[in-house]
Write a structure and sequence with these properties.
The chain is of the alpha+beta class and 98 residues long. The chain has a single domain, classed as GIY-YIG endonuclease (3-Layer(aba) Sandwich). It contains four helices and three strands, in the order ββαβααα. The chain has a three-stranded antiparallel β-sheet.
């Protein structure tokens, strides 16, 4: 499983778009200060994510969203429903059950 995600800075409200196979780890990495280009923007909150079966599909979607940044399509995506974000994040971040 791969994820395309959008993070938003609490400092400047700017966006960061990326993809990963481990959403929880990536969010922690981005907020840890280890990514120099994001150091001045932390803390970051996840505000949107989408799931994909293949890395290729996730990368294609990441590129599509990045091409929209600042445009009307990006604004519509950001204004979309967020009602289930917390519930979806709990499912993705849930510890494995054995």
């Amino acid at each position: 499983m791969y994820f395309v995600y959008i993070l938003q800075s609490r400092k400047d409200n700017g966006y960061y778009i990326g993809y990963t196979a481990n959403l929880e780890r990536r969010l922690n990495e981005r907020n840890s200060g280890k990514t120099r280009s994001l150091l001045h923007r932390i803390p970051l909150d996840i505000i949107h994510f989408e799931e994909f079966e293949s890395k290729r599909d996730a990368k294609a979607r990441e590129c599509q969203i990045k091409s929209w940044k600042g445009g009307e399509s990006f604004k519509r995506l950001m204004e979309g429903p967020r009602r289930s974000l917390r519930q979806r994040l709990r499912r993705v971040f849930a510890p494995p059950r054995f």
